[in-house]
Amino acid sequence: MTVETRQSSGAEPVAALRLTALHKAFGDTVAVDHVDLAVPQGSFFGLVGPNGAGKTTALSMAVGLLRPDGGRSAVLGVDVWADPDRAKALMGVLPDGLAMPERLTGRELLTFLGQLRGIPDHVLTGRVQELLDVMELNDAERTLVVDYSTGMRKKIGLATALLHGPRLLVLDEPFEAVDPVSAAALKSILVRFVAAGGSVILSSHVMALVEQLCDTVAVMAKGRVVAAGPLGDVRGDGTLEEAFVRLVGVDTGDREGLSWLAS
Question: What is the reported pTM?
Answer without folding.
Answer: 0.88
